[in-house]
Specification:
Blueprint lengths: L2 H11 L7 H4 L16 E6 L34 E8 L8 H7 L28 H10 L9 E7 L12 E4 L2 E3 L5 H9 L5 H19 L4 H27 L19 H17 L3 E8 L17 H5 L6 H26 L14 E6 L15 E4 L9 E9 H11 L23
Parallel strand pairs: 1-6, 1-7, 2-9, 3-6
Antiparallel strand pairs: 2-8, 4-5, 7-8
C-alpha cells in the first residue's frame, strides 16, 4: 500500500478532515514523519539600500569580536553567527548597481539587456540564471527523502506587486523571476488551503482545531506537545484575522504605490506574522527553503515607528558627514537585525520535530543586501551575516576576506547541502572554489 493511501485511510478511519493532514505529516509517532535524513534548511533574508559601514562591521577578526550598533540585537546569538566582511558582488554588465545588486544577489550571474532604465548606466532586464534558493529547492525536491509539499516559500514584507529587476531576487531560471507573497493571509491560504474569504478561513480553522484535539489522543507525549504548539498557532491566526477585520472598519488607508496591499506603518506587524508563518511551515515540514524579502531594492519605507519620517532610499543617499542621517540609517539596519534576531530566537526555541536539538540547529539564515553602502552604490563588502548551525560551519566568528566574489559564498552554501556543484552563477567567479574559512 502506498504512503499516500495509508494517509487517506488514517484520515478516514479516525474521522479526520483533510485539513488535519499538514499537521500530522511531521509527527514521528504516527509513522508519517520523514526522519531518515537530517533536515537542512535555508532562509535568505533581504533588506535594501546598504549599511553604515562603521556602525556595522566589527573591528576585530576571529572569535573575539564586539558587535557594532547595527548588529547589537543579535548579541545573544554571537556564538551562532558569521559576519563576513570582504565578500563582493563582482557581477557587472547591464543595469545600475541597485538592479545588479538585487538581480544578481542570489543568482551570481549577469542580467539580460532590457528596457528597464535605472538611475544610471544602461537599462537591463531579468537575471540570466537561476537563484540559489531555487537551485536548492530543485536539488531537495529531486530526492524523495528531502522532498516537501512546497519545495520553497517566498515571503515578503511590503514588496511591490510591480514586477521589475528592483523587486525580485528569486529566479526559477533565466528570465523567470519569482514574486514573493507579502500578504500574511494569502500566505496562510497557500499553506492551509485555497480560501475564498475570511469566513471560509474561520470555518477551516474551526475544523483544524477539532481535528487537532482528535489527533492528540493518538500520538506520543512529545508529539502532543507539537500539536499543542500548532493549535496555539491556529488560535493566534484566528485572533489576528478577527483583529484585521475589525480594524478595517472606518480605517483610512493612506495612498501607497499601486499594488501594495498593506500599510507602511504595519510593516512591524506584517514582519512578525510572516516570520511566525515561516517557522510554522518549517515545523510542519512544508518546506526547507524560504526567502524573506523586506520591501525592495531602492525601497522607500518610512519607518515612522522608529521616529524616522524620510524614505529609506532617500536617507541612504545622504553623505557620510550628515551625522543625523547616518544615525537614522543605523537605526533602520538595527531594526532589521532585530527582526532577524526574532526569527533566530523563534527557531532556537522550537524543538526539531522528530529530531534532536532546535530547529536553529538545522537551519542556516543568510542576511544580505543589494549594496555595501547606499550613497556610493558600491557592490563591495555586501553585508552578509549568517546565523544557525544548519550546515555545520564554524560559527561565532568575524571573518575578513580580501574582496572575494560572492559566488563562492553561494557555492559554499550549495555544497553544504550536499549539492556537489563546482560553480554557481558566472563560473568566472568560482575558479577558487567554495569560500575558505567557513568550516
Amino acid at each position: 500500500m502506498s504512503r499516500a493511501t495509508n494517509r487517506r485511510k488514517f484520515l478516514r478511519d479516525f474521522g479526520l478532515t483533510a485539513a488535519a493532514l499538514p499537521f500530522m505529516m511531521n509527527l514521528p509517532s504516527l509513522g508519517f514523519a520523514n526522519t531518515a535524513t537530517r533536515k537542512k534548511r535555508l532562509v535568505v533574508m533581504f533588506s535594501p539600500n546598504g549599511v553604515v559601514p562603521w556602525n556595522f562591521w566589527p573591528d576585530e577578526e576571529g572569535s573575539s569580536f564586539s558587535l557594532k550598533e547595527s548588529l547589537t540585537p543579535l548579541e545573544a546569538f554571537k556564538d551562532k553567527m558569521l559576519i563576513m566582511h570582504g565578500v563582493c558582488d563582482k557581477v557587472r554588465g547591464d543595469g545600475d548597481s541597485h538592479m545588479r545588486g538585487m538581480g544578481c544577489l542570489l543568482t551570481g550571474i549577469e542580467l539580460f539587456p532590457g528596457n528597464i532604465q535605472g538611475g544610471s548606466h544602461t537599462p537591463a532586464g531579468w537575471s540570466t540564471g537561476i537563484s540559489l534558493d531555487q537551485e536548492l529547492k530543485n536539488f531537495l525536491q529531486a530526492n524523495p527523502e528531502t522532498r516537501t509539499r512546497f519545495g520553497s516559500l517566498e515571503f515578503g514584507v511590503m514588496v511591490p506587486d510591480r514586477a521589475d529587476t528592483w523587486t525580485r531576487m528569486s529566479y526559477t531560471g533565466a528570465n523567470q523571476p519569482v514574486a514573493p507573497i507579502d500578504d500574511p493571509y494569502q500566505m496562510f491560504n497557500k499553506l492551509y488551503g485555497q480560501l475564498k474569504d475570511q469566513e471560509n478561513l474561520k470555518s477551516v480553522l474551526d475544523e483544524v482545531q477539532a481535528d487537532l484535539q482528535k489527533l492528540s489522543s493518538l500520538v506520543s507525549a512529545e508529539d502532543r506537545h507539537l500539536l499543542e504548539e500548532q493549535a496555539t498557532f491556529v488560535r493566534e491566526m484566528e485572533r489576528e484575522l478577527k483583529s484585521a477585520s475589525e480594524s478595517d472598519i472606518g480605517h483610512a488607508v493612506p495612498e501607497l504605490e499601486a499594488g501594495v496591499r498593506e500599510e507602511n506603518d504595519n510593516i512591524p506587524r506584517i514582519s512578525r506574522m510572516q516570520i511566525d508563518l515561516m517557522v510554522n511551515s518549517f515545523a510542519a515540514d512544508f518546506t526547507r527553503i524560504a526567502t524573506l524579502q523586506y520591501t525592495n531594492s531602492v525601497g522607500q519605507a518610512k519607518m515612522r515607528w522608529l521616529g524616522i519620517d524620510e524614505g529609506h532610499h532617500e536617507l541612504s543617499h545622504h553623505e557620510n558627514d550628515k551625522k543625523e542621517s547616518q544615525e537614522k540609517l543605523t537605526k533602520i539596519n538595527k531594526w532589521f537585525a532585530g527582526e532577524l534576531a526574532y526569527l533566530t530566537q523563534r527557531l532556537a526555541e522550537t524543538p526539531e520535530p522528530g529530531g534532536e536539538g532546535s530547529m536553529l540547529d538545522n537551519t542556516v539564515i543568510l542576511w544580505g543586501n543589494e549594496l555595501g553602502q547606499g550613497n556610493s552604490h558600491t557592490l563591495d563588502n555586501i553585508p552578509f551575516v549568517m546565523l544557525g548551525n544548519g550546515l555545520d560551519f564554524n560559527m561565532g566568528r568575524s571573518l575578513k576576506f580580501n574582496k572575494v566574489p560572492h559566488n563562492r559564498l553561494l557555492l559554499s552554501i550549495a555544497q553544504g547541502f550536499g549539492h556537489d556543484i563546482k560553480t554557481f552563477g558566472n563560473p568566472d567567479f568560482c575558479g577558487d572554489g567554495p569560500l575558505t574559512g567557513l568550516s
